[in-house]
Amino acid sequence: MITIPAFRGIWYGCGTANTLPGNQFVYAGGKATYSAWHRPIAVYAPAVNRTYFVFGDHANRPNISYYDHAGQSFAGQVVLGENPDMNAHRNPTLHIDDDGYVFVFRGYASGGQPMTVLRSEKPHGIGDWTPRARVGEGTGSYPQPWQLVPGELFVTYREHHLGWACRISTDGAESWGPPTTLVQFGTGESPSVYGISQGATGPYPRTVHFVWSKLGGGTPEEVAAKHLWARRYNVYYAASDDGGRTWRRSDGTPYELPIREEAAEKIYDCGQHGVWLKDIQVDGDGRPNVLFIDAEVETYKSVWKFGRLAADGYWYFSDVARTGHMYNGPALVLAGPGDYRIYGPSTPSQPRTDGGEIDEWRSADRGASWSRFAQRTTGSKYSHNHVKTVLNHELGAGDFRVLWSYGDGTSPPATKHVFMYMYGETLERPRPIG
């Protein structure tokens, strides 16, 4: 048995169209580490040998803590504010700059509030915080911060009613430059795309890679008539090598901004299925590797897909696993050139829900083929889900590569208690967080 941890996260349910029998929501359960668009939420800091992480607690307040690798212990969790509702789309994201200052970003899925930023008053400290400049005055969500150029802070995010945008700060988030709309598909009142980014680590300047999918599923009337959950279509790609100022396709040809649908590099066509992006990581050669789910919205039948940009300039894709829900949340770990791993809920633990038992899948040929290496959780009463990869985990001892949420995935649930776990291969089993 795994000891129940002290830290508690948010239980959240979302979506009412085309639900599976017995459920009130399309997806529900432990969402402390939700969603794929919240990234990064955990960062290893080699200067102090700690892994910092943020999450939404049981009241959906933004929280931060860290794991001290030397002492194998957790710092007490620190609450960083309040949220106006129990919407896990408001979960925080995390950044640590070159001087050790810790930044926590918080966006809003709705309600008209701008994105807020806090900075620790001391390097590597989490006890005292100072508000920094808001990221614009409009509504934004899913802030994804990276350091790409020395002395600069880059953040990309969904800009409501416009598309996907980015901003740059040159003074530690005391102020922000004007927004740049990166992607804008179509027009109208709804967000047009959902995207995930990954900034490279190592020497400057660092490349940031960005993949996104198109929000689709037909007109509102068509979706309502079919009772279908809105799809996201296809996978598109862009990258920037100069801190987010200019962007290019995978073959190096430049984009004009904002990127329109007819000009976007489509690296994967899902046909009439839906696409749910899950992770993007950069390999040792500086090339992007993508993990996503191709799913039938009507049945939730899903295929985990892995894609990589190879040295010859082509994208190659492979199937990893077949599961029963598009809101299962696996994570990608590139532990070495011959050691690719995926941690995620590919074995069900609760019928007709998202999440399940955490399996470890491995590839020894850079993702061309995959096999299930081990079951990391078994016999669980509830569901594990929303696995997230720790940024810089490869610099640590291998005891904290991923973290995830655990809770009752049924709706309505028997319990709304939500906990979190961490895992790395030097641990015998997943360890409770807290």
Describe this structure in words.
The protein is mainly beta. It has one domain (11-432): Methylamine Dehydrogenase, Chain H, CATH 2.130.10. Helix content is 2%, strand content 42%. It has one helix and 31 strands. The chain has one helix at 220-226, and strands spanning 11-14, 27-30, 42-45, 50-56, 62-68, 73-74, 78-79, 92-96, 102-106, 116-120, 129-131, 140-146, 153-159, 163-169, 180-183, 193-199, 208-215, 232-240, 265-268, 274-282, 288-295, 302-309, 315-323, 331-336, 339-347, 357-363, 371-375, 383-389, 402-407, 419-423, 431-432. Strands 3, 4, 5, 6 and 7 form a five-stranded antiparallel beta sheet that branches. Strand 13 and strand 14 (163-169) form a beta hairpin. The chain is globular, with a radius of gyration of 20 Å. The model has no long low-confidence stretch (mean pLDDT 92).
CATH class category name: Mainly Beta
CATH fold topology: Methylamine Dehydrogenase, Chain H
Q: What count of helical segments does DSSP give? A: 1
Helix content: under 10%
List its traits.
434 residues, mainly beta, Methylamine Dehydrogenase, Chain H, four-stranded antiparallel sheet, 31 strands, 2% helix
